Amino acid sequence: MALTIKVNGNTHSVDVDGDTPLLWVLRDVLGMTGTKFGCGMALCGACTVHIDGVATRSCITSVESIEKSQITTIEAIGATAAGAMIQKAWLDREVVQCGYCQSGQIMSASALLASNLHPTDPEIDDAMSGNICRCGTYVRIREAIKQAAKSMAQGD
Amino acid sequence: MIFDHLISSDWSARANGLSRRKFLYVGAAASGGLLLSLSIPLARREAEAADADDFVPNAFVRIDSDGQIVLTMPYVEMGQGTYTSIPMLIAEELEVDLKLVRLEHAPPNAKLYGNPLLAGVQATGGSTAIRAAWKPMREAGAVARTLFVSAAAKRWNVDPASCRAQSGEVLHAPTGRRLKYGELAADAARLPVPENVALKRPEDFKLIGRPAKRLDTSAKVNGTAVFGIDVRPPGVKIATLAQSPVFGGRVKSVDDTAAKAVKGVSQIVRLDDAVAVVADHMGAAKKGLAALAIEWDDGPHAKLSTADIAAELEKATLNSGPVAQNIGNVDKAMASAVTKIEAIYQVPFLAHATMEPMNCTVHVRKDGCEVWVGSQVIGRVQAAAAKTVGLPLDKVVAHNHLIGGGFGRRLEVDGVTRAVQIAQQVDGPVKVVWTREEDIQHDMYRPYWFDRISAGLDEKGMPTAWNHRYAGSSVIARWLPPAFNNGLDPDSTEGAIDLVYSLPNMHVEYLRVEPPGIPTAFWRSVGPSHNVFVTESFVDELAAAAKQDAVAYRRALLDQAPRAKAVLELAAEKAGWGQSLPQRVGRGVSVQFVFGTYMAQVAEVEVSKNGAVRVRRVVCAVDCGTVVNPDTVLAQIQSAIIFGITSALYGEITLKNGRVEQTNFDTYQMLRMNEVPAIEVHIVQSSEPPGGMGEPGTSAIVPAVTNAIFAATGKRVRKLPVDAAALKQSA
Question: For the CA atoms of A129, B447, B133, B356, what is the dihedral angle to 10 degrees?
Fold first, then answer.
């Protein structure tokens, strides 16, 4: 039986088992490959999306559990104020190296910024320590979050 | 890892001979523009038909008649910034804005795109790209610029000396006339190639040495970048797999009844030593995989453990081996030493754990094969696929893609071979995606090494004898056999035989011992990741034995190495070396010259009462010669330091009953945001040729951290990773 999910404002009907993780529906069924696979166990954060605004690991989130929710992915996060500011800061600060984990990093950072315009270092640690970056871009991620927060607070 | 000794080999000799002659071929591109092929006196058509004895180009620049500059990149982007720094070299001499350069991945063709510093293999690794590209890429730009100036001068009938190139056009200053490169491309293609071109003086550089914005990033912040794992040929199926949990094992039986019943699963593929589940999506493939009941024949390594391998390496070091370095007379010097010190060091197997798990997409047809993958060795991808399907090379099309982390893992093509084996049994294209567990448990690992090292000190505590013997796998012997000679290879010995210090008597032996039942491969900084840890830890031991300051002791041995001394002094000064620290906080230092780059690091480490280690601050001083993109140097050092701390604190792959015990990021941990130290980088200005930057930071940080642990606790770390339990404060 087909399930219905709402991704980036669009409604999709997908014919998969209800326990299928959202990640694979996004990537393989809907062809939205911006959301990445890293571990399959919510250990690395590469698959982070927003479900009703909350940063969530799509690799362990069953598609049947979110039929009523609004899902936002990296492909549309730039349409939110926090997302756009984070993306800009990521480019300004030259955060990215290989880039594979950055969709998840940006989704976690955007969720943080959407709820907290003045994140402290410990708050950044809390929000971001679930996201692994093997290239070690953490130093710049922290700087970029602070830059984005400052810009948001100033209403740039 | 540069194969200096291969300079005299056929391949490099030809390349050298070539560079003295005309190195550049100019012709009309298909689009009617100017085509430049580097390092090749032959016409392109001839080059493509040429056999291995002919000179062939290793890169090319194309300038279309619409002015579009296209650079086909012989090196792949995996985060290290090469897709920005290589174009900078061309653009500098060509006098164009970096924003006007368009990049293409090079197709597989070692004749055209082989890496001269890696014996002509079409490979990105060993921190070689900038070193290999530094001169030829600037020359390519300069020749093109010269031709454009000549073409413009001819058209205007003026002296070329009265014209100059700037911002993608030629300007005739006296009259103010201008012509864009695109308007000159067809003319320039018909001009004779200049024998010699003048390269710009460093003081005239506009791009080189200034921070440049990366060219590959915008697609990486909005989800549109296409990594290998993101390709979706029409009709593609998704497969995931289980390979024999013991290396060398075989499938005995498979019950796939339950797996086939999973919604979305279309097929089970059985190979000799693996089983794959093919499905509509990875969710179904994984569910199918979990439902398989596979019985394995574990084969000869069923009982293998890491302890067995370590014991074998230890035993090997009891006997002498090939001499990698010999200076003076170590035996004599040791006999007359006032103090003798000896130690045993060990480093573990390490997995790469690239964030993009192993994957490869393949479509096998009767008359051909198409492969999509992110690879550091796209030519070997093509060859591996051709061999597996039994087709000639020209029937295999290999597409390269962005790489979600390389670190040496994607210098291997085991995943390509595996994907092709599966695809041969699938109708249509199939993307084979490894689970993280499969990725970690079927990696090819940084070798385990076992070291015996000893030194003799004089009455002042300074070293008069240095004796080092170690055993472990040679990755080169498998990966590039011609570079393995007389039992030695340039990677396994880098950082062990060429210390920055003046040592009057030095003897180093390396024994190649291949562990059974576990494959090995390159891993960010490879040989130096082991050798620098051992040698810089041991120098620290000597300083401690001599009751001398760790920086002062090293400095006293660096009179013959001014660049090493300079980075040491700079790092120590910026780190506040010598200033007091709280209890159980210590500073450690390291100095090295590897990958053509001088580097010193000072780590400041805090060890809690229960032994937990936190790296608080790292100060790095680097002299990598001429800096192309300073921001990339900074980024690579930040990256390499975090990579190295991860390995020092957490990195260890172990075998039990032939099986890798670690499975995912819970058992094979990575450094996370809350553990990251403050990192300061100080770059020494230099006009020397550039050194490598991708890897040096990783080898330098590990001994800096363990030496700091010694300073904080008095406990010497001689085996990695750091054992927190051993660092507990005694009651």
Answer: -40
Q: For position B499, what pLDDT does the model report?
A: 97
Beta bridge partner(s), residue B587: B604
Q: What is the 3-state secondary structure (H, E, C) of B476-518?
A: HHHHCHHHCECCECHHHHCCCCCCCCCCCCEEEEEEECCCCCC
Contact B618, A115 (CB under 8 A): no
B491 touches chain A (CB under 8 A): no
What is the SS3 assignment for B325? strand
Helix (H, G, I), strand (E, B) or coil at A102: helix
Q: Nearest residue on chain B to A28, judged by CA atoms? A: B281
Q: Is the ipTM of this complex over 0.90?
A: yes
- Across-strand partners of B165? B170
Tell me whether residues A20 and B670 touch, CB distance under 8 A. Answer: no
pLDDT band at B731 (very low <50, low <70, confident <90, very high): low
Interchain pair A100, B355: CB under 8 A: yes
Identify the CA nearest to B443 among candidates B630, B243, B728. Answer: B243
Q: Which two tokens stand for residue B305?
A: 């453990």
Residues of A in contact with B80 (CB under 8 A): 97
Report the C-alpha gap between A99 and A84 in whole angstroms.
Answer: 17
**Would you state the structure tokens that stand for residue B413, as one six-digit string?**
């093509």
- In the stretch 603-662 of chain B, residues with CB closer than 8 A to chain A read 631, 635, 638-643, 646
Distances, alpha carbon B22 to alpha carbons A56, B25, B194, in Å: 59, 8, 8
Among B residues 321-380, those touching chain A with beta carbons less than 8 Å apart: 353-357
E strands in B94-215: 101-105, 163-166, 169-172, 177-180
- The whole-number average pLDDT for the span B406-434 is 98
